[in-house]
Specification:
The structure is a single chain. This protein has a seven-stranded parallel sheet with strand order 3-2-1-4-6-7-11, with helices on both faces. The longest helix has 30 residues, at 3-32. The radius of gyration is 22 Å and the shape is globular. The chain has one domain (35-338): NAD(P)-binding Rossmann-like Domain (Rossmann fold), CATH 3.40.50. The protein is an alpha/beta fold and 344 residues long. α2 (51-62) packs across α8 (256-269). 45% of the residues are buried. The protein contains eleven helices and twelve strands.
Length: 344
């Protein structure tokens, strides 16, 4: 290529980049005008029978949304449905394992029959496995990936045709700060949440042209009441203790109600990403600006944690000690009572 041709090619490239930049600015201004209400819209919340999903469902119904809950546990799902119905809203509860694509497609068909197309999808279903790498096996990683990656992909693919046909939709993928910064003793969880964040970011880019806005949510610690239903390996009582204590500290964690409001506001605005909570924002900033230091701090934290490699798995509710039943975890236990997290 001659010098002149190279200059021409450079001009063309710069022109294309400038045009793309102008288009992006125009598109961003247009998106800022799409601040929407949930009133009268059909919102599907996976993992909606308890915890954060149930809290978001309450807030959505208070705004006048038609809410669809799905979860695997039918008893918990029925309790959540009954609570929401007592509030006078429109609610549909469908037992569904989101890791099974056939069940997901059948669920979305039922939603279409009852309410019509899904306007907003909130991929919230989750599972937490806590313990050192030595205690985890391949099944733990498979389980986490099935729930956190394949589940959101299946639900997204099921609702996309109608969203594309109408040229409008909102999708919220609840990842975690663990999907931006890998935390010790949460490796299957963090790896699968990283996968979800990558999927969500890519969906945002590809679906914007169809009028569908995808929001990736990365919350920090939240007092949803979930520790009793998390799974623990290794020295399960010690693992449960650090996990539930961190979950209970007001300065380190935020209430599920506040987190839910921030997530729904991000969806309402159509934000690309929402880092929810101070811990999430600080951790993400540290990982970006000082990755080596962040890794060193986390490695030191790992050395201080229990190192038992036992592969036997226990629920948090089976890992209680006098410390975890004491006043220091009271906020988490109150949240568990409010948010349908207690086993009955």
């Amino acid at each position: 290529m001659t010098g002149r041709n190279k200059k021409d090619a450079s001009r063309i490239t710069l022109g294309a980049l400038a045009a793309a930049g102008m288009s992006a600015v125009v598109g961003l201004r247009a998106l800022r005008k799409q601040h929407v209400s949930f009133s009268g819209r059909t919102v599907l919340v996976t993992g909606g029978s308890r915890g954060l999903g149930l809290v978001m469902a309450r807030q959505l119904m208070a705004e006048g949304a038609r809410v669809v809950l799905c979860a695997r546990e039918e008893v918990e799902l029925a309790r959540a449905r009954d609570e929401l119905q007592r509030g006078g809203g429109e609610v549909l509860a469908i037992p569904c394992d989101v890791t099974d694509r056939v069940q997901v497609e059948a669920m979305v068909s039922r939603v279409h029959e009852r309410f019509g197309a899904v306007d907003v999808l909130v991929n919230n279903a989750g599972i937490i496995q806590v313990g050192p790498l030595e205690s985890m096996d391949e099944e733990d990683f498979d389980e986490a990936m099935n729930v956190h990656f394949w589940g959101p992909l299946y639900t997204t693919l099921a609702v996309l045709p109608e969203m594309k046909r109408r040229g409008w939709g909102r999708i919220v993928n609840v990842s975690s700060i663990g999907g931006r910064v890998s935390v010790p003793h949460l490796l299957p969880y963090s790896a699968s949440k990283f996968a979800l964040a990558g999927l969500s970011d890519g969906l945002r880019v590809e679906l914007a042209q169809d009028g569908i806005l995808v929001t990736t949510v990365c919350p920090g610690l939240m007092r949803t009441g979930s520790p009793p239903n998390a799974f623990f390996k290794g020295d399960h009582e010690a693992e449960y203790a650090w996990f539930v204590l961190g979950d209970s500290l007001p300065g380190a964690s935020m209430s599920a109600e506040r987190a839910a409001r921030k997530i729904l506001e991000a969806c309402r605005r159509g934000d690309a990403e929402a880092l929810v909570g101070l811990t999430a924002k600080v951790a993400a900033l540290a990982r970006t600006l000082a990755p080596n230091m962040t890794a060193a701090v986390l490695a030191q934290l790992n050395r201080m944690m229990p190192q038992d490699g036992s592969t036997e798995r226990f629920r948090g509710s089976d890992s209680e000690t006098p410390l975890t039943r004491s006043w220091v975890t009271q906020l988490t236990r109150w949240a568990a009572q409010r948010n349908n997290e207690l086993l009955h």
